[in-house]
Protein 1
Amino acid sequence: MADLYRVANVLVLTSWDEGFGLPILEAAVHRLPIVCSNLDSLREIAGEAAVYVDPADDASAAAGAVVEALGRNPEIGAELDRRVRAAHLWPDVYARFIAPLIEQAVARPLD
């Protein structure tokens, strides 16, 4: 996947439903312009760094959003990259999400 991000010019993620938004994080660390669905979960991650589209819109609306994203100031992507790297480094993810699950499993072993 990293090779695909390296050769990409923009991330277009027009899904109807998205959980965590991992493609947004991956695009951010590659400093790609982002066009994505106007979903709360994606807005929470990308903030002002993305151009948002309604997945129900026709393809011309998404194409216009891609052109807009490509024309944006590249520093917008750099800011998201810094934010993602600060909030989603593996030690931090482990401490916040994985360690509590392991501690819970140890405290309550399976019957």
Note: The chain has one domain: 2-107.
Protein 2
Amino acid sequence: MARTRLRIGILSARELEIEVEDIGDIIETLEAARKDGTIVWIDDFRGHRHGIVADQVAFVEVHSEDDGAGIGFASGD
């Protein structure tokens, strides 16, 4: 399975960049957690865990090694 790089902007003007193997579940979890304001835990391909407070996410940008295209969503706040 190809790795996918996930970059997340935090409202504090910082970004996380995480390489993951399965992006589909992560996107769904982030969308649901954004509504609830909960913490999302993401495991990268090395096995490191990253906790993200969902209501602090400003944007999500997804780049796949397979196609080079990006997708994302931004807060409407």
Note: Residues 4-59 form one domain.
Protein 3
Amino acid sequence: MAGNDFDPGELSLFDPRFISDPHPVYRKVRAQCPVAVDPFAGNPMLTRHEDIADALRTPGVYSSGMDATALGNQRPLIPLQVDPPLHTEYRKLLDPRFSRARVRELEGDVRQLAGRLVNDFVENGRCEFNSEFAIPFPCSVFLGLMGLPLEDLDTFLALKNGIIRPPATDQQDAEAARERAARKIDDYFTRALARKKKNPGEDLMSWFLGAEIEGRKLTHDEVLGICFLFLLGGLDTVTATLGCSVEWLARNPVDRARLVADPSLLPGAVDELLRFHTPVVGVARVLRRGVTLGGHEYEAGQPITLLLGSANTDSDAFKEGDSVKFDREPNPHLAFGAGPHRCLGSHLARMELKIALEELHKRIPSYAIADGEKVRFGLAIREVECLPLVFPPGIRTQADAS
């Protein structure tokens, strides 16, 4: 590896031009210094696919414990902020609830939901895709799984944004805002769990109350840690990926037409767009023992960033990695992570993304970004902040009209 003296030239990781198109900076930073320095926090930052995949698969060295990321929470987010061997026990409990087979059982309801949402704007000839589809679609699925009322969605979105996008001008303000949001999240779920205990249903939260690990029931704090993580994961990344995917398809009508003509391409397209527009640009880890990275010695306790967005366009792992190829095979992208902490909801996310694009294209096969609109991307999560689309008015599908 080379050193970590990175000169990005006119662009930096926080330049608006990087946020709109990060790939040129990713290429440059990988070539100049595979181990760079995060300009915001001053921590080392891995940039190459091989190094990041290895780090993700070695939690004994690169830990994702609570000291890796400050999110305002007072207890670990389970299973994300717990390392093996305890992490393994939590995954044994939770993985079956999100297996391919379990997710397949949800497809009918998820497809009906997607169809109804598109039907609501299909005849208008225009929509703001985020607010009318990309936000309510995965959020409604999440709230249904958890057994929570849809009318609380705005509350959940505000709480989630208080953690991921805290309203703050500096790091100290951000930490305080996250702590306030975290307390509100704990309070909400404590009240909701009390109601579930009195009136259990068939939802995940009711199931958590009776679930066991290592021969004992989950504690209240453990259930809160699971619910907190599910809130962050269930209300953000699919929304972000949907917006980025549809924005890309709006600007690339030839490739969109291929998906419309041949929906069998969709599974590959979903993974390729996840790779190209990696929603979680980077993840934090903390070293559990000293290591040498890029010719520099780092001691135990050192925070480190794994730049997933860079890994997923690394030309050593992906031929023509800066191009979108729906038939890319293999596609070892790290958008869902890798190793023990690989995303628990990856099967659900893929299913939601595939069905969303299928149902959208059934009704609206052709669309474009509205004239005069400039799409802006976000930084904390790669997302389009607003996506106004125009299209020839489509036809409501009667099966989903009710």
Note: The two ends are 59 Å apart (CA to CA).
